[in-house]
Write a structure and sequence with these properties.
Blueprint: E1 5-6, H1 16-24, E2 31-34, H2 36-43, E3 51-54, H3 58-67, E4 71-76, E5 81-86, E6 89-95, E7 97-101, E8 108-111, H4 115-120, E9 130-131, E10 136-138, H5 143-149, H6 158-164, H7 167-179, H8 186-194, H9 204-215, H10 220-229, H11 232-237, H12 243-256, H13 262-270, H14 274-283, H15 288-298, H16 309-319, H17 321-335, H18 341-348, H19 350-353, H20 363-367, H21 375-390, H22 397-414
Parallel strand pairs: 3-6
Antiparallel strand pairs: 1-10, 2-3, 2-9, 4-5, 5-6, 7-8, 9-10
């Protein structure tokens, strides 16, 4: 084990985590915070969920929680996991265990009291650290040196760890994108490439979850490029991956001060036409809203590559602010990083400077000129709206009256 290190984490001084650790650290049992919370605290980045491992069996965890008036939920009791809710904060409490058979999420486990064995069954060294109530960090697999170098490395034989669960291929790149630095670990990278056929055995939901998290990580550009070079994106997307536009999309988001957006980045990486969007929606089991948005981005995005402000306003009016910005950013990303960003920036910020007025003409305006209700009325309203847009959104009565007269005349002229 690495030399002891003491971590001064605020959630070890007071609060619900301290209460849970205190509850489980008595009468011969021990509990420690494990995994991501320890990793993040060591890296000096915000901590999300706090997971706890314990020597106590699940039924004992539930018994102690009940005696302390704490709500318990048997969220994964067959794998030793009980969720305790303290002050509205959920804590996953998992009994120390070893995998006796491993086949993805359905591994068979045996409960035990061996902290070393529990650490060695985890995926990456930086995820296998634990910390006790006094702040002492326990490292049985070399996680502390890897934290210092921001290196994501499999525990033990990478090929064996991947064979246990092929989702670890995606987690390797996602964790590297979020917490690593420099190039990916060579041994892990080669093992992922060798095992890439195993990605086909994963459910679409699990792949979607990892991919969307990866795309918004700080180091997504490098991780995605490594995946593309290793032939992994082809296995996931079933089509071409465009790493250049992906990097350009991220640069555009940052230039505009926009939050990282997984669907927008997915479009830049893998959507050239709407058929690509539909294939991805199926392969990744996207939600209906995500699929609709991806499809909209892929629909004739190239028409936004050459336009003046008048045309940009018409596009914004037709598409709405979100769809307009999404499609414009895809066109910008596809244009590449060597183009002048000024026009793109101006078009992208148009919604901040200009709000489209509502179409002012109503059915009554045309009924008053003799157009009966029915298909003809709907048609003339469409013609009038097109004319109003072409005239740059006039609102004065004389211009509107002229549009009404011209569209009625056109409809009358076009009738057989």
């Amino acid at each position: 084990m690495s030399p002891a290190r003491v971590l001064d984490a605020p959630w070890l001084k007071s609060g619900p985590a301290v209460r849970v650790l205190g509850l489980l650290n008595s009468d011969g049992e021990e509990a420690r915070v494990v995994g991501g919370a320890v990793r993040n605290a060591l890296l000096g980045i915000p901590t999300g969920d706090i997971d706890i491992a314990t020597t106590a069996l699940p039924n004992e965890v539930i018994r102690r929680a009940k005696a302390a008036g704490i709500k318990s939920v048997p969220t994964g009791i067959e794998h030793g996991t009980v969720t305790l809710v303290v002050d509205a904060h959920p804590f996953e409490i998992t009994t120390l265990r070893e995998d006796t058979e491993t086949f993805g999420r359905k591994a068979k486990v045996a409960f035990g009291r061996d902290w070393v064995g529990d650490a060695r069954r985890r995926d990456f060294t930086i995820n296998a650290l634990s910390i006790d109530l006094t702040g002492v960090v326990y490292d049985y697999v070399g996680g502390l040196p890897d934290i210092a170098q921001r290196r994501v490395r499999f525990i033990g034989d990478p090929a064996q760890r991947i064979e246990e669960d092929y989702l670890r291929i995606l987690r390797f790149f996602r964790i590297h994108a979020a917490f690593g630095a420099g190039e990916v670990d060579r041994a892990g990278y080669l093992a992922c490439i060798a095992a890439r056929a195993g990605l086909a055995t994963l459910s679409a939901e699990r792949v979607r979850m990892e991919i969307l998290k990866l795309l918004v990580a700080d180091g997504a550009v490098g991780a995605v490029a490594a995946m593309a070079e290793g032939g992994l994106l082809q296995a996931i997307f079933g089509g071409v991956a465009y790493t250049g536009p992906f990097a350009s999309m991220i640069a555009a988001e940052r230039e505009l001060g926009l939050a990282a957006d997984a669907i927008r980045r997915l479009a830049a990486l893998a959507v050239a036409v709407t058929e690509d969007a539909r294939r991805l929606a199926t392969r990744l089991r996207l939600s209906s809203a995500e699929a609709k948005r991806l499809d909209s981005m892929g629909h004739r995005w190239w028409r936004l590559a050459a336009m003046d402000e008048a045309r940009a306003k018409r596009r914004l009016y037709r598409l709405g602010e979100e769809a307009y910005r999404d499609r414009l950013l895809l066109a910008w990303a596809r244009a590449g990083g060597n183009t002048d960003p000024t026009p793109w920036r101006n078009f992208a910020t148009l919604p901040r400077r200009w709000q489209a007025p509502k179409f002012p003409l109503k059915a009554a305006d045309f009924i008053a000129r003799g157009i009966a209700q029915g298909p003809a009325l709907g048609h003339v309203l469409t013609l009038a709206e097109d004319a109003w847009l072409a005239a740059d959104f006039p609102l004065d009565p004389s211009s509107l009256a002229s549009i009404v007269d011209q569209t009625v005349a056109r409809l009358t002229r076009d009738r057989p």
